[in-house]
Amino acid sequence: MFRCYQINCELKEFRKFLLKNRITPKWVIFLLDLAICIVSFVYASYLLADFKIFSLDYWSLFDGIVIVSIAASTSFFLFKTYEGIIRFSEIHETMRALSAVFCSLLLMLLLNGILILSKGTLIIHNSVLFGYFFCASFLICGYRMLVKSLYQEDEEADVISSNVIIYGAEIKGSFLQKTLEGISNKQFRVVAFIDDNEMLVGKTIDNVRIYSISQLPSLLKPFRVKYLFFSQHNVDVDLKVKVAEECMKYNVKLMNIPPFERWVQGNLNLNQLSDVKIEDLLGRPAIELCTNNVVNFISGKNVLITGAAGSIGSELARQIADMAPASLIICDQIETGLHNLEYELQQKYYLGNKLKPYLGDVKDVAAMDQLFYTYRPDIVFHAAAYKHVPVMENHPSQAIRNNVLGTKVLADLSEVYGVERFLFISTDKAINPTNIMGA
């Protein structure tokens, strides 16, 4: 236990030393690699001598060190292993170091071949050379990976990562994992894969486990997931909706990636990532409104919106305010909501005198008559209605007064004052109502 603690402390001290020296000089890397090759050769020599130190010929050992130094130095210069920045290195940098060690082995084997053909005495036996190769390869590649991992720990500690689940394992999912973690500078961290292929469930990709669709609800909260990426584009719509419903419960954002052929020069970048839109869950093409016709319909007209402070009425007001109406009359019986909407529209659209707030109840015939007489609306959007079905079922008289009689007041006045269009926003948002309020 004490030994493990001591090793851990030594690693921490080595890590502090590395962090103080962000870029190591080339000559240090070269000498370190060369020292590893020499130590590996000496170790292989003693290993094959069964660690009987006094049985070795020290002059032959010294000659061997000289030959290894020359062969290794030549290889390192040929492959330029000292030029790479280790903390930024990838697998090809490790392979380059491995190739240099292998090249040094070939040079010494070639020397041995020449000595055998010329009937000379071998300075280094072939068995020692192969022991040298395996030992040096392990140490040179190993210390590079160790240094890189120590730097990564420091970098990851400074980055707040967002946990990510990827739908779809196999090749695309694995490639997406590496791409996401690479392009985001560790801002995304893949914590799980989801796949509907039961053959993959329970297995891992780069130590990240693959789960089934049914396990998704049990992962989102414990893993503190922020994003779910779809690595496939042919996901069944019903399945996509099911995943979306679960993610909405935990405020997890659904993200799409573009098809591979649309990646910029074969590489994905953060700007190409996009949220999953509601149209993606329809299972059919989205209905596109003819915006020009709508603008022509609204532009230059006096537009009245009742129930303007409500969720539907306020959104109508925002969109119509951007269509250059002659005047926009917003009517509601809620004072605070009406004031807030007026402030928002003026701040965003600068309507000035075109915006006409009117505090009034659609059931009040006199107030509505005054409204129509003063502002002479050309188009009426009637959104003032109680819309919470359970509440209205407990207060049927209020539902009738507001939703039925209030609508009749507006409709009658629209006819009296020659309104061009009267648009009634459904109180229950139901095409085929199944309850009394909807009917």
Number of strands: 12
| Strand line-up in the sheet with most strands | 3-4-2-1-5-6-7
* Count of discrete structural domains: 3
What is the H/E order?
Answer: HHHHHEHEEEHEHEEHEHEHEHEHHE
In helices, the fraction of residues equals: 40-55%
Total number of helical segments? 14
Multimeric state: single chain
Gyration radius, to the nearest Å?
A: 38 Å
Ends distance: 77 Å
Which helices and strands, and how do they pair?
Elements (H helix, E strand, L loop, with lengths): L1 H19 L5 H23 L9 H22 L11 H27 L8 H33 L3 E6 L2 H14 L4 E7 L9 E2 L2 E4 L5 H4 L4 E6 L6 H13 L3 E4 L17 E2 L15 H8 L3 E5 L4 H11 L5 E6 L2 H15 L5 E5 L5 H11 L3 E4 L6 H6 L1 H21 L4 E4 L15
What labels describe this entry?
alpha/beta, 5-stranded parallel beta sheet, 3 domains, 439 residues, single chain
How would you characterize this protein structure?
The chain has 439 residues and is an alpha/beta fold. It folds into three domains: 15-157, no CATH class; 162-281, NAD(P)-binding Rossmann-like Domain (Rossmann fold, 3-Layer(aba) Sandwich), CATH 3.40.50.720; 291-424, 3-Layer(aba) Sandwich (Rossmann fold), CATH 3.40.50.720. Helix content is 52%, strand content 13%. The chain is built from 14 helices and twelve strands. The strands form two sheets. The chain has a seven-stranded mixed β-sheet, with helices on both faces. Strands 10-9-8-11-12 form a five-stranded parallel β-sheet, with helices on both faces. The longest helix has 33 residues, at 126-158. The radius of gyration is 38 Å and the shape is rod-shaped. It starts with a helix and ends in a 15-residue tail after the last strand. The mean pLDDT is 80.
